[in-house]
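In full, the data:

***
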Amino acid sequence: VLTAENLRNELIDLWTGSDFPTKSICIVTHNIEEAVLLADRVVVLGSKPGRIIHEARVPMPRPRDRESPQFVSLVDEMYGVLTGRFDPNGSVPASEPNAVAAEATPVNRPLPAASVGGIAGLIEILVAQGGDADLPDLATTLNFEIDDLLPLVDAAVLLGLMEARDGDLHITEVGTRFDGASIQDSKEIFATQASTRAPLVRTIIRALRSSADGKLRAGFFLDLLSRGFGTADAERQFAIAVDWGRYGEMFDYDSDSDQVSLDPAFKG
């Protein structure tokens, strides 16, 4: 982290210096904050086929304040584009996650890289702060980058446990119930939210119910996911779904038989 920060500072010093002969610099990064921190123009690429799906100008003067509303808004916009929460054409605003969830598929709305424990921890922190928090302030308090928290935030928003607008986090009524519930009740709340709002979880449940015995090989889901993801990402999406499915007692995966099976007690 320190090396990356030093390199960014060196690059900015060179860029703003009078003796630097270069007129343009192209940087490829997976770090959203880094892109907004360094670039005057950010281009977001999609896959299969590789294409430009979004472009944004960053008119902020240097040095840039990571905690400014404009910076946070741009970071959230980039993350929203990559996860499907933000429609560049404006047909489904990022501030309406329910509308996105209703039309989403496992490919255009992938599951955020967040465990149930991580999501629950974020909700606990938000409840402890009175149900509201400023994302940049929260990241600073926890000594994390905003990028590190965004998958947890996105997962909680996807599940309807919190709302996020312009860098402000607000717990929902469902999120409050989830935090204060007993272990079994929290599992049931999670299952209800995930089975109706998380596209891949919903797809797995529907497919298992369509089978003769409530079981299907994992390869079936991995083959479908590979249509929209690379092999590693498809496996990662499947692993997240299994983690969520196990916690909510919706379905389980047996690595020995390589089968996903619906929990007989799940009625959602």
Q: What stands out?
A: The longest helix spans residues 231-247. The radius of gyration is 20 Å.
